[in-house]
TrEMBL record:
GO molecular function: ABC-type transporter activity; ATP binding; ATP hydrolysis activity; ATPase-coupled lipid transmembrane transporter activity
Any matching Pfam family: ABC_tran
Gene Ontology cellular component annotations, sorted alphabetically: plasma membrane
Residue intervals of the ABC transmembrane type-1 domain: 28-307
Domain ABC transporter per the UniProt entry, residue ranges: 340-575
Alphabetical UniProt keywords: ATP-binding, Cell membrane, Membrane, Nucleotide-binding, Transmembrane, Transmembrane helix, Transport
Protein's recorded name: ABC transporter ATP-binding protein
Annotated source species: Pseudodesulfovibrio senegalensis
Mode of membrane association: Multi-pass membrane protein
Transmembrane annotation, as ranges: 27-49, 61-82, 140-158, 164-183, 280-301
Subcellular location per the Swiss-Prot or TrEMBL entry: Cell membrane
Coiled coil region boundaries: none
């Protein structure tokens, strides 16, 4: 993989700096000025030593050049201080903050379908590690790199005024060293990308291992998963070792070439003295300038991997930013009600060739209770995701109150919809904060009222810290039924006119199911409700039941109407009744 040209790197750095681009450019300007005066300072050694070593010494001229040297030193200090203000003061922190805000806003507008494909550890690596990899070197590279390039140029130019032969000899080192420099950059670019990829995989494995430890213990798979984690860690170590070794030989050859080249330049100077074409004063000054000329060349080789390290981080950040957000309408449309309608909707997930939904059309009246049933993978959850605009269909329209969800303001759309998932996600915060997420401006009394309506106030008050109890990561300190009721309290507090229930009682015990069902009855009220159901007994009273099969609406009707029709619904009902009868018979036989 080829390394990115430096000009492209500078352009990407300026783009990443956002509102602080003027500060970054100021850093680059004063770094350049600092490098120029450094080069001029070393150029002063030629006339200074010429004046001192003259016979007799010309001290008036010498002191003049000493003053010039001192002035260059003072200017250099001032310019460096101004330039480093970007690196060590507020701007670099602002760039980090702003870049994370940009990523956060982009994540908010990304299709959730795209986010589902990314492991949480990979996202964490981008938002935390890769942002630091981009921003932290930015100020240092801006100041150091320009100094590395500009100072030798000024030093060579000054040498050319004194003796063009020595200047040409110094410049001749550069074309010989450049192939080794680019060899190193290509190796470093490939290496850091491989390391970044291995690091992201390791981060994902670490997060997954930590989050799934309870399940791993319950299924006796801790060792197996630990081996996967260990394999990821060992792979990261091996990649780091291999790529570091790839950088050794270019470095050795580059350093050797620079040192040999400088020895040749000094040998030429001695030869010119012996031939009577160069003065001792010029050679003495040349020794000082050559040392200053060689230092940036060595630093250039050492600093080049930092560019590639930053490039690897930029690549991951830009890859995330490259995911196209959902388009936003210039003039958002307002719904006239809360009827839900799908018209000729066809949808497939990106990266697949098969339609998940095929010409789906239906209308769910406002204030109705509708159920989606069907086998796993038939497209039920996809329908609700399109309603919430987690993605846009390739064909057809999804409407709320006559308004296409694609033309609605995204925040306005989500204010109209509450969701109670089967797998509840609670944030590692207090119960109060988790419920209040439904309506952030709600006071404590409103939160408590929602908790009472969701039948969770009683168990909350029995906890030592009550509503201030922290629920732990993903709500792990609470039972499944308790988490579900808190989720329902959050939806009640939100008070949205459309409610989506994704089989909220499927994984609960009988006691928890009864409590959650009571909470759901309170939540439903006079709203447009869509239920994804697997237990058909829970939706016999629905106003409409849609049977989804192979991405199509195979049947639609009430429970009674569908039982009279041959088809998937009646077969599912009979199968569940048989299972129920078998369970009762098994209990009686056991007794």
């Amino acid at each position: 993989m080829r390394s990115t040209p430096l000009s492209a790197t500078w352009a990407r750095m300026q783009k990443a700096s956002g509102d602080q681009v003027s500060q970054l450019r100021r850093c680059m300007l004063f770094s350049t000025l600092s490098a120029v005066v450094q080069g001029l300072a070393f150029a002063c050694f030629y006339p200074l030593l010429d004046a001192v070593l003259a016979a007799p010494a010309d001290w008036d001229r010498a002191w003049l050049w000493v003053a010039a040297l001192a002035a260059c030193t003072v200017l250099d200090i001032v310019f460096i201080w101004i330039a480093r203000g970007f690196d060590y003061a507020g701007p670099i922190a602002d760039v980090t903050h702003n870049l994370r805000l940009v990523l956060g806003r982009h994540l908010r507008n990304m299709p959730l379908e795209a986010l589902d494909k990314k492991r949480s550890g990979e996202l964490a690596a981008v938002l935390a590690g890769n942002v630091d990899e981009v921003v932290t070197p930015m100020g240092m590279l801006s100041s150091a790199f320009l100094g590395i390039v500009v100072t030798p140029v000024v030093a060579v130019a000054a040498t050319a005024f004194v003796d063009w032969r020595l200047a040409l000899a110094m410049v001749s080192i550069v074309p010989l060293a450049l192939p080794l420099y680019y060899w190193r950059r290509r190796a470093a670019g490939r290496g850091y990308r491989a390391i970044a990829k291995a690091h992201a995989r390791t981060s994902a494995e670490l997060v997954e291992y930590a989050q799934g430890l309870a399940v791993l213990r319950a299924t006796n798979q801790v060792g197996k998963k630990a081996r996967r984690l260990q394999a990821a860690l060992e792979n990261l170590r091996d990649v780091q070792e291999r790529e570091q070794w790839c950088l050794v030989w270019p470095g050795v050859l580059y350093s050797s070439l620079v040192q040999v080249g400088l020895l040749v330049v000094m040998a030429l100077g001695v030869w010119f003295i012996l031939s009577g074409t160069l003065s001792v004063a010029v050679l003495a000054a040349l020794l000082v300038v050559v040392v200053r000329f060689s230092e940036p060349l060595a630093l250039l080789f050492g600093i080049s991997p930092v560019f590639d390290y930053m490039e690897a981080g930029l690549e991951q950040v830009e890859k995330l930013l490259a995911v196209r957000p959902l388009p936003v309408a210039d003039e958002p449309e307002q719904p006239s009600g809360f009827e839900v309608g799908f018209k000729d909707v066809r949808f497939r997930y990106s990266g697949t060739d098969e339609d998940v939904l095929k010409n789906v059309s239906f209308t769910l009246p406002e204030h109705s209770l509708s159920a989606l049933v069907g086998p796993s993978g038939s497209g039920k959850t996809t329908i609700t995701r399109l309603l919430m605009r987690h993605a846009d269909p390739q064909q057809g329209t999804v409407r709320i109150g006559g308004a296409d969800v694609r033309t609605m303001d995204q925040l306005e759309l989500m204010r109209h919809v509450s969701v109670v998932f089967q797998d509840v996600y609670l944030f590692d915060d207090t119960i109060l904060a988790n419920i209040r997420m439904g309506r952030p401006d709600a006071d404590d009394a409103a939160v408590e009222a929602a908790a009472r309506a969701a039948h969770c106030h009683e168990f909350i008050t029995r906890l030592p810290d009550g509503y201030q109890t922290r629920v732990g990561d993903i709500g792990g300190c609470l039972s499944g039924g308790e988490r579900q009721r808190i989720s329902i309290a959050r939806a009640i507090l939100k008070d949205a006119p459309i409610v989506i229930l994704d089989e909220p009682t499927a994984a609960l015990d009988t006691e928890s199911e009864v409590a959650v069902q009571k909470a759901i009855d309170t939540l439903v009220g006079n709203r447009t409700v869509i239920v994804i159901a697997h237990r058909l007994s829970t939706i016999v009273g629905a106003d409409a039941i849609l049977v989804i099969e192979d991405g199509e609406v195979a049947q639609k009707g009430t429970h009674a109407e569908l039982l009279e029709q041959p088809g998937r619904y009646r077969a599912m009902w009979q199968a569940q009744q048989c299972t129920k009868d078998w369970h009762l018979a098994a209990v009686k036989d056991a007794q």
